[in-house]
């Protein structure tokens, strides 16, 4: 089978998906006291709380 090149839109989506993953990884490590303090209603905060509960049980 021949290798086909991605169309421009697909290449763009691929790079943006990589950037999104990178951003989400960085967003979990927000420093205490920083100007971008994470709110407790944030979905990341809820996810981290659930993960903390699961790791405490294990």
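Sequence proposed for the structure above (58 residues):
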């Amino acid at each position: 089978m021949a290798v086909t090149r991605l169309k421009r839109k697909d290449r763009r989506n691929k790079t943006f998906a990589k950037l999104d993953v990178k951003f989400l990884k960085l967003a979990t490590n927000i420093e205490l006291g920083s100007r971008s303090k994470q709110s407790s209603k944030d979905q990341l905060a809820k996810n981290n709380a659930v993960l903390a509960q699961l790791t405490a049980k294990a």
